[in-house]
Structure formats: C-alpha cells, structure tokens
Amino acid sequence: MTPILEVEDLVKHFPVQTGIVVKRTIGHVRAVDGVSFDLHEGETLGVVGESGCGKSTLAQVLMRLEPPTAGTVRFHGEDVFAKRGKALQALRRQIQIVLQDPYTSLNPRMTVGDIVGEPFEIHPEVAPKGERRRKVRELLDVVGLNPEHIHRYPHQFSGGQRQRIGIARALALRPEVIICDEPVSALDVSIQAQVMNLLGDLQREFGLSYVFIAHDLSVVRHLSDRVAVMYLGKIVEIGTEEEIYGRPSHPYTQALLSAVPVPDPALRAGRARIRLSGDVPSPVDPPSGCRFRTRCWKATEICEDEVPDLVVRGAGHHPSACHHAEEQHLLPSS
Amino acid sequence: MLEKATGASPLLEVDGLHVEFRTRDGVAHVLNGVDYHVEAGETLAVLGESGSGKSVTANTVMGILQSPPGHVTGGAVRYRGEELLTATPERRRELRGEHIAMIFQDALSALNPVFTVGFQIGEQLRTRRGMSRRDAERRAVELLDLVGIPGARQRVRNHPHQFSGGMRQRVMIAMSLALDPDVLIADEPTTALDVTVQAQIMDLLAEIQAERHMALILITHDLGVVAEVADRIAVMYAGRIVENADVHSLYANPCHPYTRSLLESIPRVDTKGSALRAIRGLPPSLTRIPPGCPFHPRCPMAADVCSDVVPPLETLPGGRSSACLFAEELVGR
Lengths: 334, 333
Description:
The structure holds two protein chains of two kinds. Chain A is of the alpha/beta class. Chain A is built from ten helices and twelve strands. In chain A, strands 6-7-8-3-9-10 form a six-stranded mixed β-sheet, with helices on both faces. Chain A has a four-stranded antiparallel β-sheet with strand order 2-1-4-5. In chain A, strands 11-12 form a two-stranded antiparallel sheet. The longest helix of chain A is centred in the middle third of the chain and has 18 residues, at 189-206. Chain A is globular. By secondary structure, chain B is an alpha/beta fold. Chain B has a single domain, classed as P-loop containing nucleotide triphosphate hydrolases (Rossmann fold, 3-Layer(aba) Sandwich), CATH 3.40.50. Chain B is built from 13 helices and twelve strands. Chain B has an eight-stranded mixed β-sheet with strand order 6-7-8-3-9-10-12-11, sandwiched between helices. A four-stranded antiparallel β-sheet of chain B has the order 2-1-4-5, covered by helices on one side. In chain B, helix 5 runs parallel beside helix 8 and helix 8 packs parallel to helix 9 (195-212).
C-alpha cells in the first residue's frame, strides 16, 4: 500500500541578514534540514521535539504555506509542490491544519458559523449555498459543541471549546490528512483529555490520518502509532510508538524520555536520569557532523566528521541517526 | 491551633484566606478560604488549573496582590507566627526577599531589560546590606556560579536578552537567593521551558532547597513535576483547597473526586493507556461559583446534598484532609 503522504529530504532554510554569521555574508536558519518520512492511511505520526527543532516549520511546509528550499512531498503519489491553480486548490481540501493557540487562530469578528463555514466559500463544490448552515450545525455537533451556538463569537467560548471550533473548521472539507500543530498544549489539564479523546474519535469515525506535532512526550505517546523525534531540523529517530518509548536508541531520545516527569512518586527513586548540559545550539550555525554531539555523552571523533544517516543500525530494529546507537530501556515499567 | 498552644507556629501559614476581585462584570470570588502551611526543609506543591487561585494566594503571601481589583476580605497569613496582612508596608518590605522570596514563570518579563543581571542581583545587596558596587558584583558572580551559569564572571555584565530561557530562570533563582530567604515561592518556574531544561531547573531547585533547608512552595499544574519533587501537596479548585496530603498517599489513594479525576485524565509517558477518562464540563466561572461543593457539576460521585452544603476541609486518618462529603468512602479504595 502506498503511503498517503511521502516526505523526502524536505529542506526549509530561512535567510538571515548579513552580519549575524561572521563567516558568510548571508546565513540561513536551517529550520528543517533534510526530513523524510511516510504517513500511512488512518495512522497518526507523532512528531516530538523541543522548541526550535523545526517541527512547526515542517507543518507550514507540509501545508504549502511556505515554499520548501528543497525536497519533495507526495500526496497519493503526486508531487504537492508541482501543483498550481485548480489542482492546488483541490489538494488544499485534502490537507488541513489545527493550530496551537485557539485564542489567536480564530477571527474575533466572525461568528462561529462563519468561521466553520468559511471553507465552503472557497470550495463551494463541497456544499451548495443552501446547505451550508446545516453542514456547519452538523460539524459543531460532531466536535461536541451545541449547534445552537452557531451565532456566537469566539470570545464567548472557553479555550477547550475554541479548540473544538478550530477542529470543526479543519474537518469542514472532509480532508484525508489533518496536521495538528500542538493542538492541546494551550489547554488546561482537565480539558486536554477531552480534546485528545475527540481527536481519537474523529480519526476512527472519518478514517483520518494525523501528523501530530507536540512537545509533550506523554501526549504524543497516547495518540501516535509511530513517532519521529526531531532535533535541530533533523529527525534523529523514527519508529513505532513502542520502539521509541520502549527501546529508544538515540541518545537524545533517551535524554528526553528520562527528563519527562512521571506522575507517580513511587517511581521517583528508581528512574534512570540523563541530564543534558547546556542548550540547543543555534540553527543558523549547527554543529558539524551529528548536530547533537555538543550535548552528547557518547560523542567521539566520528560524530564531529560524519553526519549520521537515519538508518537501522547494528542490533537495532528501527532507524536511528546515531553512530553509537544502542537500544536502551529507560522508562520505569508499571 | 494545637501547634499554637505548644508555641511552635509553622514557618509560613495561610489561614482561611479570602480574596475577591471587583471587576466591571461583578465580583469574582477568587479565594474562598485557603489554608496551608509549610515548614523549613519541606516542599509543598500547590496544584491547580488556571483560575484555581494558586498564584493569587502566592501573590497575597508576598504582598504583591494587585489592588484594585484584588481585595483581601478575610483570613490571615503568618510568618513565624507574625501576622503579615496587617503589618506595616515597611515591615512587609523587610520580609520580602529577606525572608520570603519568589520566582516567576516568565523570567524575561520578570527581569529588567535595561540593566545587567549583575546589577539586578546586586541591587538588593546594595540597598539592604549596604554593600559597595564592587562587593555586590562579586557576590552576584558567586550566586550565578551557584546556580550553574558557566562563565559567571563574564556573564554578570550581560543583559537578560543575552541569556536563553533556562539560563534566565537560573538568573532569577540566583536573584531570589541573594538575601538568604527561608521560604521560596516558585510560581510555575518551568512551565515555559523545554523538558530537558525543565529537568535541569527542577534538579537545581531541589538541590538548593536541601542545602539551605529552605521551605519551597511550588505552584504548578503539572502532576508529573509534583510527583518528582513534592513532599506534600495542596490541590486547589475554584479558590479552595480541596485536598491536602503527603505526595505518596495522594497519588496512591486520592481522597477527593477532583484529584482522582485529574489523575485519571492525564496521559502518561510510561504507559500507552486506552481512552483517557476526561473530566466533563469546565471549571466554574469565579463570578458564578455553583452553590455547595464547587466541583459537584463535574463530579462523578455527586449526590443531591453536594449542591446544598459546602464541604469543609476535614481531617482524615494519616494526617491528610479532603473537602468532600464522601471522602471517607474514597479512603483505601
């Protein structure tokens, strides 16, 4: 079965003004620097990483909101970046996005009905004019909002409800792929679960495929079938949820997992602790070779000289971009 | 009360604190009787979602509650038995920093952008301790070194924007330690940070607290962070403490339905669970808190009586307490 979305060597560099990088007249922020993955039908691919790793830029490029510097994205085998005009518009129907901040991603001057119905204005073939109100009511009902509230404005809703409005808008055109860019990180703990459950239910109901971008490793584990870990614009490790969380082989993934607090004080003492020193280097001038080597306790000469490829290594079972990859069990078993 | 009689009052005590915000949309009852206390060498986590009143309590303790709109309408805050809310502004200023210090979530907006971090750390030492500029800077270097900032001698002359998020949080910790406080209030100190940096900062706070035998009040919404560092936990909901227990009992056997539901609703990194048991509904609006128990409209255990009676925070066996009429049914469940 061909994947629904194939991403190959995707690169997105943003130019920087002269003078920021000493050596060159013009530098580049290498936000996304050679990312490849497949997304299969009906699956959720989680993308985790810390701020600045390029995960949101990846979302922007996948949505074609930003042109890529290099690389290809194929949707059902067709090159996304080659499309123009009518073909592009048809494609946009199929890939939608849910944004992080439900406060700034909804127009405060539009009613909920207009927000959720706006996609139909651009794609009138999906719903004829007379039917739009009914469709919008249906959508509100699907995401767990009261259809009677169609005339209300965003400020009359709570954060969780606003995120539901954003989800309804993304669903309006019945897309095949939804890119979720930190959809629950702005929400309170007790509301997060509601929205996560909703995303799960919708996936089952409509057979959606998700690219689920988040910094919270617990949230990503809960929703994802497969997980990609990003660091400084590159995927350092990719595998099934069980592989990444159960036996990670890249030192960065291991450090991330050991740093996530587990809500169980009984496990406090027995946990492996890997503490990284320092901060993430600037994406304008990333380290040579392996980008993680400046913070890595395993780093040797080869890490400085050679960029490690994302391949299955040694006794491993899933691709890992580390010269010294070694599977390790890190999380306490409960 | 018993503690009073024996003459050993807690290091810091909040007692029946009521605060309301008078706004154009009406009166918001932000705190409705908050009680907690903390002892030297202890880490108390105040756990709650946004709007539960955890930061307002801390600001009232520090004497930095914005007024208007905030008004204290009842209760007391005592430091070593001394009443703070009725103390003179001079006395409060004396206590602030010297005895009770606070660090904030967003270090970038808490630090002054136009002064060097050395100047800002040293400011308290110059005005409070009468140190010379040079001595204050020397001490600032020591403090930056203590909180793990590499190259402290050079960095002391840097401005806040020249530091990363984690490093800025370290600067703020250094600043809070300058006058050797014995109570440190940390308001969501790692919420804005990445997970690897969060771990560094929490380790640092725990280390400093143990070394100085400080009382640490950690305000957070993160059930994971709490499980890693707290000794005792006070759970807040709608301006009240709903449960108070030591960390092990609270996670093993939560005795308030809100705490129980919260623990069941979070995804965990160490297991792949099935569907999360989400809490239905929303936290109440503070201008219209439901009658009776504020959690009853969302509670899976609610009975008729819950909408009539405000459950008091009752003591349970094992030195813990819960503000639920059915708490005893939950013990040992």
